[in-house]
């Protein structure tokens, strides 16, 4: 038996590269949405707590689309699932045109919701898709590697938003024209990617998680789902993912506000620092992928959660440069959390893997529920609002340290 399983196989290499690029594309959309928060506050004159409904539209789509996307993937396969996700992504981007013309915050939220339904579909499909491109024992490494390019997209999003949307003194810095033009280009690019992917030949896949060797593989669908919720490691993973994305959504939603109000930066420059924090996340994922060779993923997850508890305490003090550096480091420690929780939650689920993927993706709705709550505090003091994510990282820490007991079949 090979004690050192390969990262992937040569026949899957082209597909892995293409699917990994999808992680980058939805990273752009998510962080670009966070730059829209501040722009909508400026142009449409909405409060911080109301602007956080941008995150509710983005992340709320995951609760709506998680299970349908999983059902679609199960019936029509990974490739068609990707095409559906890209189609919705492009459609949502093009809806920014009538939303900008109407100057309507609610219309923008509808456009973001449609776009995010595409993102939710891509996430539901892409994680088990990447997991299927090699040995299950290296699925943590593959997913973290692909998620590192989600970090690349996370860097690009704020750069685009800072330069084209938030940059002061340009012709359309105080209206919605630049937003409309930017999303027309994004929609066109995503549509072209979809056309290219439709021509890609995907080798026959046998998802290593979905091997029909467990007692539920031949059971009825109702029995499969009933037994799924008896898997403690999966249930806790879904809960941990909800709190994880809640912390992410709140941290990102008010980053630019923090830079503007605490550090007295312009919105544009605060957006560029937001992009730098995404670089920190990307670096964290590459380092985390390397460290998982020597440290069990659940242990590393707990260590990073403790790191973010400390960072949040420092950020909440509003100490100026020290607190702002800690705000940047939140993304470094956040880096491995989403993919690691996802991968650990899917371990040893056999034929239940695709259903489990849908439910874990639904936990992303936490990113829509948490920012409005943080926004109520941020309306008075944006620094103090950063005490709230400590609750989330405590849950993640508990998931990490208890994982071996939850999943007795081992990690």
From TrEMBL:
Pfam families noted in UniProt: MFS_1
Membrane-topology descriptor: Multi-pass membrane protein
Gene3D superfamilies membership: MFS general substrate transporter like domains
One GO CC term on file: plasma membrane
Subcellular location: Cell inner membrane
Alphabetical keyword list: Cell membrane, Membrane, Transmembrane, Transmembrane helix
Residues that span the membrane, as ranges: 12-32, 52-73, 80-98, 110-133, 145-166, 181-200, 234-258, 270-288, 300-319, 325-346, 358-378, 384-403
Chief site of localization: membrane
Superkingdom of origin: Bacteria
Domain Major facilitator superfamily (MFS) profile: 13-411
Single annotated GO MF: fucose:proton symporter activity
InterPro entries attached to this UniProt entry: Lfuc_symporter_FucP, MFS, MFS_dom, MFS_trans_sf, MFS_TsgA-like
NCBIfam families, alphabetized: fucP
Protein name as it appears in the record: L-fucose:H+ symporter permease
Organism expressing this protein natively: Mucilaginibacter rubeus
Gene designation per UniProt: fucP
């Amino acid at each position: 038996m090979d004690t050192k399983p390969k990262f992937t196989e040569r026949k899957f290499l082209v597909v892995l590269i293409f699917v990994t690029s999808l992680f980058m594309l939805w990273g752009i959309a998510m962080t670009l949405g966070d730059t829209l928060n501040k722009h909508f506050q400026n142009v449409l004159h909405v409060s911080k707590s109301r602007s956080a409904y941008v995150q509710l539209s983005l992340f709320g789509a995951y609760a709506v689309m998680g299970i349908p996307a999983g059902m679609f993937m199960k019936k029509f396969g990974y490739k068609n699932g990707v095409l559906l996700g890209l189609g919705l992504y492009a459609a949502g981007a093009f809806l920014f045109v009538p939303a900008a013309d109407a100057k309507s915050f609610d219309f923008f939220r509808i456009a973001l919701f449609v776009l995010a339904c595409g993102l939710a579909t891509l996430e539901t499909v892409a994680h088990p898709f990447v997991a299927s491109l090699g040995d299950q024992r290296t699925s943590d490494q593959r997913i973290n590697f692909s998620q590192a390019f989600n970090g690349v997209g996370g860097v690009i999003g704020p750069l685009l938003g800072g330069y084209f949307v938030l940059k002061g003194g340009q012709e359309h810095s105080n209206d919605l024209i630049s937003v409309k033009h930017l999303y027309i280009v994004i929609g066109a690019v995503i549509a072209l990617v979809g056309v290219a992917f439709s021509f890609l030949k995907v080798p026959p896949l046998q998802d290593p998680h979905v091997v029909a060797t467990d007692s539920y593989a031949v059971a009825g669908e109702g029995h499969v789902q009933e037994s799924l919720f008896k898997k403690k490691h999966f249930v806790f993973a879904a809960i941990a993912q909800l709190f994880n994305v809640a912390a992410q959504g709140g941290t990102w939603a008010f980053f630019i506000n923090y830079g503007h109000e605490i550090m007295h930066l312009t919105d544009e420059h605060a957006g560029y620092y937001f992009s730098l924090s995404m670089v920190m996340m990307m670096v964290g994922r590459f380092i985390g992928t390397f460290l998982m060779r020597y440290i069990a993923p659940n242990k590393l997850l707990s260590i990073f959660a403790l790191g973010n508890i400390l960072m949040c305490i420092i950020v909440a003090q509003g100490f100026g440069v020290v607190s702002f550096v800690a705000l940047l480091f939140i993304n470094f420690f956040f880096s491995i959390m989403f993919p690691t929780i996802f991968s650990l939650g899917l371990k040893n689920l056999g034929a239940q893997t695709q259903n489990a993927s849908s439910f874990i993706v639904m936990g992303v709705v936490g990113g829509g529920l948490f920012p409005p709550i943080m926004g109520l505090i941020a309306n008075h003091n944006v620094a103090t609002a950063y005490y709230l994510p400590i609750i989330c990282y405590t849950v993640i820490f508990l998931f990490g340290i208890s994982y071996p007991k939850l999943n007795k079949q081992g990690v």
